[in-house]
Write a structure and sequence with these properties.
The chain has helices at residues 7-10, 14-46, 52-70, 76-82, 96-113, 131-140. By secondary structure, it is mostly helical. 3% of the residues are buried.
Length: 144
Amino acid sequence: MQISIPTSFMKMEGSYVASVVLTGLAVVFLALLLLIIVFKLFGLIFSRKPNPKKVKKAKAVKQEQEVKKSTPPATAAMVEDTTVVTPPESDDGISEEIIAVISAAIAAISASSGKKLKLLSVKASGNSRKLWAQAGLNDNTRPF
């Protein structure tokens, strides 16, 4: 099989080839420059500064939250009222120490939020998978 090259390709001069290559490069770089300018303009248009009134309101809310955090959240009497003296019984084999830790965590959350929370029951999760199988499933289905 013989490939024939047209004679017009053989007669191309170096200046013609160079002008075609330089024109192609110029077009590509001008298009890239145009895209950069367009994206910069989009960035300027869509990143407008927020309204000063909204900024002042947000600062006021943030200051109020800081004041609430700096004040003591609750007294010891309030924590004693919300804690469960006798831990609930568990049929699932959960030890009393674990129930006590869960109760303490709920009491701490209750004291910091100002709401009265109470632990009613503790049950083991109904997950039938073994721990390593669950870890593999979590690893393989984690979002990117």
